[in-house]
Design a protein that fits this description.
By secondary structure, the chain is an alpha+beta fold. The longest helix has about 50 residues, at about 1-50. It has helices at about 1-50, 55-80, 85-100, 105-120, 160-165, 190-200, 240-255, 265, and strands at about 125-130, 135-140, 145-150, 155-160, 170, 175-185, 215-220, 225-235. The strands form 2 sheets. A 5-stranded antiparallel β-sheet has the order 4-3-2-1-5. A 3-stranded antiparallel β-sheet has the order 6-8-7, with helices on one face. It starts with a helix and ends in a 10-residue tail after the last helix.
Length: about 280
Amino acid sequence: MDEVIVQLKALALTEALPLLLKVIGALFLWFIGRTIIAGFRKVLDLGLQRRQLDPTLIRYVGSLFTGTLTLMLIVGILGLMGVETTSFAALIAAAGIAIGAAWSGLLANFAAGVFLLVLRPFRVGEEIEAGGVVGIVQEIGLFVTTLDTSDNVRIAVGNNQMFSDNIINYSHHPHRKMTVKVPLMYGVDVRVLQQALLERLPAVKGVQSTPEPQVEIAEFTVQGPILAVCIFCKPTEFNDTQANVGDAIAEVLLAVGYTVPMPALLAAPPPPLAKAG
C-alpha cells in the first residue's frame, strides 16, 4: 500500500502538477489576453469614431478585429500547453473548406455585406427598397441587413439578395417628389381648379416651397382630363405629407363644387330615349 501511495505521489509530481500548472497558466494568459484585446478594441473604436465613420462600420470592423485576435490567442495558448498547433491550423483550414462548401450562401452574404459597407449605397436610418422589401435600414450586419417596414415589421434580408437586386434609396436626396393624379370630367373649368390647387398647396403641412408645387394636365381620357399634382417634401415626411395633400385636394374639389366621378357611374350605359307619339 505504501508503494502505491509513493507511486501516486511521484505520478502527481511528474504528470499532474505540470499539467495543472499549464492549465493555470493558460487561464491566466486567457484573461490577460482578453483584457488586452478589449483594450485594443476600445482604442480602435475611439479612433474610428474620431474619423466620424458610420456606427455600423465601426461595429463591423471591431467584431472582425476581436474575432481574429481571439483566434490567435487560442492558438498561442494551445502552443504553450504543448498542443501541436500545426495540425490544429491544418484542421482549421480543412474545417474552413468544408464549412465554406456547405455554407456558400452565407459566404456570399458575407462578401456582399463587405461591398455594401465599402460602396455605401445606403446608410443606417435611410428608407430603401431592395430585395423585394421597402423599409428603414436599422443595421447592416455580417450576413443580413435589417429593415423596419412602415407597418412596424422587422425584416432581415440577405446581403447577397440586396446587393444583386436594384437598390432604391428614397432618403439620399434632401427632398422627394410626390405626384397625385386627380381624374376630372369634361365640362369642368380646369384652369380654375389648377389655380385653386396652386393657392392651397403651399399651406399644406410638409409641402416644400422650393421647388414650387405644380399642377399640370397629365393626360386625356374618355371621361375627361387627369390632373397631376406634383409637390416636393422631405423623405422622412413622405407618408404624412401624402395624406395631407390628399385632404387638401378633397377640400379644393368640394370648394369648387366638384366630386370625383365614380367608376360605376362612368361605366353605366346611357338611359334609353323615349319614343315620340
